[in-house]
Amino acid sequence: MTTEPTLSIVIDVREVELDETVTGTVRWANLPTRALQIVVLLGLQVSGAGSRHAESLASVAFRPAATGEEQFSLVAPLTSPPTFHGDKFAVEWLVRARIETRWAIDVKAETAVTVLPVGMRMFQARRSREIEFPRIIPDRPDPGHR
Amino acid sequence: MTSMEPERRCKTSQPPVEVEGKHPWLGFVACAGLTVAMGATAVGFIAAQPIVAVGLGLGAAGASALTLMLARSARQWEPAEVEVSATTVELGEVISGTYVRRTKPGHSGDGELKGRLLFKALYKDDDDWRGGGGRVEFTPVRQPDDQAVKFRFEVAVPVAEGAPSFILDQHKVEWDLHLWFATDGPDDVHFIPITVLPIVHHTLLQ
Which residue of A15, B16, B104, B184 is 20 to 30 Å from A129, comparing CA positions? Predict the structure, then answer.
């Protein structure tokens, strides 16, 4: 009897800014001998209205042992959009891991992280200064929206 | 792939998106009206119906005069001069600028300027960009000027509620500065694309 392989991701800090590094640990166990490598990716995906889209922006690969863990660090590129939750669609950042195995379906795991614009954490921390910003008045619902 | 313009702010003078002259056909209508007036008068006299001739002539001439007045008001303005402090800004940064419009020699006119910063979250659907977003409304302040109608405006880009500009496959976020000068003639409308960088403006962090 064979035991199913397991894979998990633990993120150190779930909220980073663009141009910062997402760090964490990937853990696995019970890998079959035909496992090729373990890949960890940082990417984003768009969901909601329109076609679904996902892209990887940084990745790292590890040689597998039967059981083990590795630390990873992946940079969120400054030229990418931050996490966005809009009325029509959302941009989400994800850390994904997969065990690439010959002649078998890859085992996968994923977890979400929040990526903020540069300087946003410091701005939120100092917001006690009560800076007045204009509010965005939302448009009326789009009748053509499907 | 994602993309955002890397260049920083620069002073710019926007070429106007003119809607002036959206009634260029008014002049032709006026000429046609005058021709009809003269023709109707001549035909009326030839047919020995002077009352009908005068009535038709006066009616057509009146319509022509009204049309000419409309055409004149449509052409009384010079193109607007719009200047904005920057078209690439950071979250929280203030965009300021001026709007100046002069009348042509021998004309006078007045109007009101309205402004909005438009936030658009769009997705592609059958080759059309659809979606919506919101707006920040602002009121330009009139500046004293004997020679022109002049306004000064400023608006801050919201930090928390919006998102920086981006395009991601079939999805994008865009910002536009919308200026709308309403007069007794045709309105003058400007849409100025603004690139918002994913960086909170540095003066807010000091």
Answer: A15
